[in-house]
């Protein structure tokens, strides 16, 4: 099942050389795990509900295990300080939904679980 690394990042107003180095080197850390950028540092074009400060990063992986192995890998762990010294934010790993997923079926399961005494 597809998985994603998602970041909501808040860069400092002036980017340092380390951030550029991070950006230049990150793809090489993704390649062995099948990772690819789906969204890279894009500000929200429209915030329809709530607030969304920062820049969004979404990286897709073929499976959750790939995403976790990438994040825990030595090459990526070595790059993390280049980013975190110059921007704050949240990074998470999530699984996608399986092929053919239907929200209505999930709602029916939840409704049945709630209805049980």
Automatic annotation (TrEMBL):
The signal peptide here is none
Which Pfam families does this entry report, sorted A to Z?
A: DUF1330 (PF07045)
Q: Which domain of life is it from?
A: Bacteria
Report the residue ranges that make up the DUF1330 domain in this protein: 2-97
**Entry's InterPro entries?**
Dimeric_a/b-barrel, DUF1330
Organism encoding this protein = Streptomyces tanashiensis
Q: What is this protein called?
A: DUF1330 domain-containing protein
């Amino acid at each position: 099942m597809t998985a994603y690394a998602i970041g909501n990042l808040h860069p400092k107003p002036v980017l340092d050389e380390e951030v550029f180095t991070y950006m230049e080197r990150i793809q090489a850390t993704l390649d062995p795990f099948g990772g690819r950028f789906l969204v890279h540092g894009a500000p929200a074009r429209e915030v329809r509900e709530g607030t969304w400060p920062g820049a969004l990063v979404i990286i897709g992986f073929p499976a959750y295990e790939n995403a976790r192995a990438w994040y825990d890998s030595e090459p990526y762990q070595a790059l993390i300080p280049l980013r975190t010294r110059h921007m704050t934010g949240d990074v998470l790993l999530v699984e996608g939904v399986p092929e053919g997923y239907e929200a209505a079926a999930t709602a029916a399961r939840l409704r049945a679980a709630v209805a049980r005494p």
